[in-house]
User: Fold this.
Amino acid sequence: MLTAFPPDYFTATYERSGNVKPYSERGWCFCESSWAAMVNDSRLVLDLGKDTGEGSFNRNECKQGRKAPVLPAEFVVQLQSKGFTNGSTDSPRVAVLYSKGFEERFSVVTRLLYAGLGWGDEEARAVARVLPHAPALQELDLDNNSIGGESARVLAGALRHVPALQGLSLNNNSIGDEGARALAEAVPHVPALQTLELGGNSIGDKGARAVAQALQHTPALQRLSLQANTIGDEGARALAQALQHTPALQVLLLGGNSIGNEGARALARALLQHTPALQRLDLRSNTIGDEGARALAKALQHTPALEWLDLSDNSIGDEGARALAQALPHVPAQQRFFLDSNSIGEEAKAALRTAWGTRGSRSVRVDRGLTLNA
Assistant:
């Protein structure tokens, strides 16, 4: 979309046409941009009017301001304020074209990727209104927007219309516990869900408990992200108990929360019994100490598929590090292990390096910025 005139357009530099109405007021521009913005990937609709022409091209800046998709009836109302050279014939014609295009595209669309568009509650509600027209939808991505809890509730109410949904991503919004509870209540309506991403949303223990209750309805879940929230031991315990209902879980991301030793012990008990397919466990930037590290170390031999374990930036000392070192030989699939930014002395680090050195071409990081290849 070229929504702005060149800076020197209203000078003698250009031979101008008679129509100098702003882009947003032109009927055909409005229609064409509405069609383009229906279901296209967020990277593929750009407002070049936002590019200053100075420095390198900023794609992310040009993504901002894109309209949310609207129902045909809403489109007709908005169309009434737009100008056409031949309004009496063009306006009703494009209304029919939009309605036809809307139904054709939403009836078959499988992915709606609306990440990083600067959308807020109004746009989230617009998305909720179009979801009933997308019965084949498998992936909905609204990451990195500004969606709040009440709008998350409206979105959740629309999920019953997309029973084939496999991936729902709302990372880095502002849904909080209220939004997490609403989405959790909607989960039984999407039994095919494989990916649930709710990181960076100020979700605390209440929201985590609601998500945990929903996990009993997600037997196909493979990836769960609740990182960068405010979940503590209480929420971690609830999630750990719920893992018995997710035998297919491969990725569990809980970094950047407030999980301590008690939460780590609960997760360790779940690892012992319920996570045979787990490949990646992220617990970085929590408050886990030696006690939690010891519990996790005992559980590692029961995670045969684990490839990636991140315990960096916690409160683990020498005792916990040595327990983890003793457990490493019993995790045959593990390829990446991170323990940097803890309180580990040189002797314990040496024990980790020695334990890792028997494992072939894999790596362990025990100091920030330093990866040691076996």
About this structure: Residues 369-374 have pLDDT under 50 and may be disordered. The longest strand covers residues 363-367. Residues 1-106 form one domain. The longest helix spans residues 87-106.
